[in-house]
Amino acid sequence: MKIFVLLVFMLILQSCQQQKSPEQSLSIKKRVFYNKDFKWEIAIPENFEEVSAAEREKKQEMGANKLKDNYGDNVEFKGNNIFLFKNEQANYLEALYEPFSSSDRDYSRSFKDVNKMIYETLKNPAVSKLDSSSTLEVIDGLKFYTFKIGVDYQNKTTMHWCIYSRLFDKKAFTVNIITIDTAKERILLDSWRNSKFGHNQKIN
Q: Which PROSITE patterns would you find in this protein's record (predicted)?
């Protein structure tokens, strides 16, 4: 079984255990990001800054080492980063893709495997409660496999992680929204749910 590792996995585990989200006012001005591979346009909230390639690679290596300790050779790293934006240390919007040559049915099983891996790895003494749900959600006419997980930490911080994923031909496209601030979660979900894809891709 091959498991694709989500880029910010280790970073989120660490930062959410250490922080609570401070009260602050939010700017709702947005910048438009366009990706030509998926003909995808999304508005990025102004108060989110892009994480550098060097920092992304560092966190990816940390996550790789952590997951290899748990899963050994069952973990495979072959993702391509589209972007990673953050606000403070524990609110993230990430997009990435990986090659996937099998069918949508195979991808559905793979997505469930990833979700199980995330759920099991989040079980640790710092966590007091875990909740999760799986469903399908339509974004701009396209169906996305969706996995949502809520994590209550012993330090009274609550993390919400929303994963959206689907196949575009032979590429598996994934968006992660990870927050400890409900106001920022609403803003990011609004941006994602109102994003647009090329009309020629609205096939299922």
A: PROKAR_LIPOPROTEIN (PS51257)
For residue 13, tell me if it sits in a domain.
yes
Tens of pLDDT, residues 111-163: 888 888 888 878 888 889 999 999 999 999 999 999 999 999 888 889 999 99
CA 78 to chain centre: 16
In a domain, 90, yes or no: yes
Cα separation, 145 vs 166, in Å, equals: 6
pTM higher than the cut 0.90: no
- What tens digit of pLDDT does each residue of 25-42 get? 444 456 899 999 999 999
What whole-number percentage of the chain has pLDDT above 90?
A: 38
Q: Kindly report the CA angle at 6 between 133 and 39, in degrees rounded to 5?
A: 90
Pick the closest to residue 9 from 143, 149, 187, 112 (CA basis).
149
DSSP count for the chain of H helices, then E strands:
4, 11
CATH of the domain at 112: 3.40.1000.10
Domain annotation covers residue 25: no
- Token pair of 134 as six digits: 């799986």
* Cα–Cα distance, 97 to 95 (Å, whole number): 7
Query: Is 27 a domain residue?
Result: no
Q: How far are the Cα atoms of 20, 46, 167 from residue 137, in angstroms, in the given order?
A: 29, 26, 14
The one-character DSSP state at 24 is -
